[in-house]
Amino acid sequence: MPSSSRLRPGHAAAAPLRCAIVGPADKPDVAAEAETIAAVIRDAGHEAISLVAPVGAEKPPRPSDTDLVVVLGGDGSILRVARWMGYDQIPVLGVNLGRLGFLADVPRTAAAEAFRRITAGGFRLVDHLMFETDVVRGNVTVVPRELGLNETSILAGPPFSMIEIGLVVDGEPATTYRADGLIVSTPVGSTAYNLSAGGPIVRKDLDAFVFTPLNPHTLTNRTVVDSAARTYEIVVPEPNAGSACVVDGRVVAGLEPGDRIRVRRAEPRFTLVETGRHGYYGTLREKLGWGGGLRAAERRSTRGGA
């Protein structure tokens, strides 16, 4: 968090906050929701700047001295905003206008109350691991310092045959996967593509990377979790014609034989503002439907069962 930020957990805002509202204007209701939230912010005596723009549009320049970024949409919107902020991250409040939303956790109906809590100091700041990805071809870095929040994926692509993917940890060869690809996920990304591929959920405040192969040919290839303090290099000796390196859902490079993809912890941290609706496991229960057993017990109780 920038040292100049006026956001202080446990302390009411002593001066007006400067808030930027960001979201995809071509998604339903985003522009109207931005105006509603901006009105709440201004009525409370704070400054609101709307930077709502269509997906894919040129990103507006970052406003200076911003204390809070309110992101409207879903987790995809937050990933785009994290990349837009780059190496100078600002605390984010995610307002969920979509469906699942692990990062965009505040329902639109609770957005006004969440902002009131923030101005009263009733919030916490939760830092999340970010990473850098470089693609090296020969002795040339063809994609330098691609900043990400969720994951780097190596995908086999067309003609959709398996490829070999070597993993090197701090210069030491670790293993070789023969698979449809490999996901290198952060803890916050562990509930995204990694979870869909059968990888584990990793608590988001841990500093670790999760390595999950996609449809590995060998049964001994399993997910590995290792420290984010290490530097990881992924080597693809013979990629397919359509093989690619993908960061947070964006193709950053098509792969050529011998390419090396380096993944390491980035200096900035993504900071999420949480206003105490529920804790970590409460979020998992709500988003993943883990409360099935409890609901079943409640149904039995209402029917008079044991």
What are the key terms here?
6-stranded antiparallel sheet; Tumour Suppressor Smad4; 2 domains; alpha+beta; 306 residues; single chain; elongated; Rossmann fold
Question: Could you explain how this protein is built, in words?
Answer:
The protein is α+β, with helices and mostly antiparallel strands and 306 residues long. The protein has two domains: 18-122, 3-Layer(aba) Sandwich (Rossmann fold); 131-265, Tumour Suppressor Smad4 (Sandwich). Helix content is 19%, strand content 34%. The protein contains six helices and 19 strands. It has helices at residues 30-43, 75-85, 111-119, 193-196, 280-288, 292-302; strands at residues 18-22, 47-50, 68-73, 92-96, 106-107, 124-128, 131-137, 140-148, 151-155, 163-169, 172-179, 181-185, 208-214, 224-227, 232-236, 244-247, 250-254, 259-265, 270-274. The strands form four sheets. A six-stranded antiparallel sheet has the order 8-7-18-15-10-11. A six-stranded antiparallel sheet has the order 14-13-12-9-16-17, with no helix packed on it. The termini are far apart.
